[in-house]
Amino acid sequence: MKRRFILAASLCIATLGMQAQEVAFEEYDLENGLHVILHQDNSAPLVTTAVMYHVGAKDEDPEKTGFAHFFEHLLFEGTENIERGKWFEIVASNGGQNNANTTQDRTYYYEVFPSNNLELGLWLESERMLHPIINKIGVDTQKEVVQEEKRISYDNAPYGHWREVMSKNLFKNHPYRWQTIGSLEHLASATLEDFKKFNKIYYIPNNAALVIAGDFEIDGTKKMIQDYFGAIPKGAPIKRSSFKEEPITETIKAEFRDPNIQIPLIMLGYRTPEQTNREAYILDMISTVLSDGKSSRLYKKIVDQKKMALQVFAFNGSQEDYGTYIVGGLPVGENSLETIQKEIDEEIVKIQTELISENEFQKLQNIFENNFVNANSSVEGIANSLVRNYMLYDDTNLINTEIDIYRSITREELRAVAKKYLNPNQRVVLEYLPEEKPAN
């Protein structure tokens, strides 16, 4: 009975994925280079207005890091027509919500309003693009905000520096070697002119994409978009540098002491291909086999059966230029980091040398079918996917076709890609340790 129920559930998930409705959209460019994407869904009276700028931490000067993340905060300060400190008040008082986030590749701002306030969302984002006020009081205020964020999320957070340490060792030339939070010293020493220059280069219509998703009328929305964004001047073409990393050919050992932890952590980091590469999709599936859920290989063996670790994980962090594949675990009791590493390596070798079973492969496919459906289950999620696919993958329609890539991946490819990238001589081994106690 139990086996029959599981099979039925799996078939249900697979069927759900196969029946997921195609996301319809329209896209075009304004004369100033702003790319526009429209997805109409009148099933609920809500609309998402969002702008993604093709600027992230990787676009920063190595001596002036943290600017992209800083602008995520700074561009809420106010504009020529929005009084300082009133942005969030305007949004909330009109029944909306808004936020922003920054990665090493892009910055994303969005508002969600009742559909009768679409024009307000367009006005807010056009104001952010055309009329931002970058002055000393705003810069000084946000410097304090970023300093506090760094203290909370990095300096005083358990394991808060793992990504920083891993990135410095995986990347020697590429800007991925520093984090989006950047250097507080760089921000502190930056001048007002430095910030104005960064804004002038990157926060321009021809380096941005506007997406509207939800309940709206197409023709009227196009007119409003033209009215609010059409007159914004086109910026100068952006000159982007390219960075190439030499292959890692022998194990890089790293260690970090964290005063905020008591349990050590072992992390194995591998440099992987860019997110548009088919192999990046295959690595997504490999990480799912290894550590997605309690029935995954690493969890079942190391946490559940052998009870050697509190937690194990594997994830593929795909980005525009390179990816990072991370595997690791937290030992329990007297188990050492070396023992956890050995157990992890044994499972990686199995992936490299043996085909996963047909049953395991079918379960894997079902997981990705379900993820695909969930990613497109809200207009907010659809808006994000559409603009991200346009900007970072150069394929807006990937929102409809990406699942076909996962469906086409074979068991043989899982084995081959694991063998290509997840080798001991191609990785960083990071021992993330509690701070040493002084001798009595």
Task: Provide an overview of this structure.
With 440 residues, this protein is α+β, with helices and mostly antiparallel strands. It folds into 2 domains: 23-229, Metalloenzyme, LuxS/M16 peptidase-like (Cytochrome Bc1 Complex, Chain A, domain 1, 2-Layer Sandwich); 252-434, Metalloenzyme, LuxS/M16 peptidase-like (Cytochrome Bc1 Complex, Chain A, domain 1, 2-Layer Sandwich). Helix content is 45%, strand content 18%. The radius of gyration is 24 Å and the shape is globular. Residues 190-367 form the Peptidase M16 C-terminal domain.
Task: Give the arrangement of secondary structure elements.
Elements: H1 2-18, E1 26-29, E2 35-40, E3 46-53, H2 67-74, H3 87-93, E4 97-102, E5 107-114, H4 118-130, H5 136-155, H6 162-170, H7 184-189, H8 192-202, E6 208-214, H9 218-229, E7 252-258, E8 265-272, H10 278-291, H11 297-305, E9 309-318, E10 323-331, H12 337-353, H13 358-375, H14 379-393, H15 398-408, H16 411-421, E11 427-434
Parallel strand pairs: 2-6, 7-11
Antiparallel strand pairs: 1-2, 3-5, 3-6, 4-5, 8-10, 8-11, 9-10
Helix pairs in contact: 1-13, 4-9, 10-16, 12-16, 13-15
Number of strands: 11
Tertiary shape: globular
Low-confidence stretches: 1-19
Give me the strand/helix succession. Answer: HEEEHHEEHHHHHEHEEHHEEHHHHHE
Number of helices: 16
State the distance separating the first and last CA atoms: 62 Å
Keywords: Hydrolase, Metalloprotease, Protease, Signal, Zinc
Protein name: Peptidase M16 domain protein
Signal peptide: 1-20
Domain Peptidase M16 C-terminal: 190-367
